[in-house]
Design goal:
Alpha/beta knot, alpha/beta, 5-stranded parallel β-sheet, about 160 residues
């Protein structure tokens, strides 16, 4: 089963770009796709309108049979071992991935995710109880996914 990570816009601050590119390179060896969708500029529209415009872009990138994971500070905490268990289950087609084609993990833009994304999500994860800058959240997610894959593969990157 493929995993696709959806990230809003370009990484900011740009100094984090090298770290992002390094994790994207590492994740490619595990078949993970990372897709940047256009984020909305904060404007005179309401925050809900801005978040919904981004949600529409997320929904356009989704396919029938996708399992959606939304990343939001109001979600439940996810541990590395749980993420690794999810990857194992996805490989075997076990619950809750039976009949699913792809896992899609989405991060929202500067204002977060629209409620419509949270409602459509199969699960909502919190990367931290802290509110983070978007660039930091991206690195945390990408590193977490990479670490989970190294656990599954028995790679020495993860030390318990």
């Amino acid at each position: 089963m493929k995993i696709c990570v959806l990230l809003p816009g370009k990484i900011k601050p740009k100094a984090l770009g090298a770290a992002q590119e390094e994790y994207i390179r590492r994740l490619k060896s595990f078949g993970v796709d990372v897709v940047e969708y256009k984020d909305e500029k904060v404007s005179s529209r309401t925050p809900e309108q801005i978040k919904q415009a981004e949600a529409d872009r997320i929904f356009k990138l989704m396919k029938e049979g996708d399992y959606l994971i939304a990343c939001d500070e109001r979600g439940r905490s996810i541990k590395t071992v749980e993420m690794a268990d999810m990857i194992r289950a996805s490989r075997s087609g076990g619950h809750p991935f039976a009949g699913r084609r792809r896992i899609v993990v989405a991060i929202g833009g500067a204002l977060g995710l629209a409620e419509s994304v949270r409602e459509k999500a199969d699960v909502v994860w919190s990367l931290s109880s802290l509110v983070m800058a978007g660039g930091v959240a991206r690195i945390v997610l990408l590193e977490g996914v990479y670490r989970a894959f190294t656990v599954v593969e028995g790679h020495p990157y993860h030390n318990e």
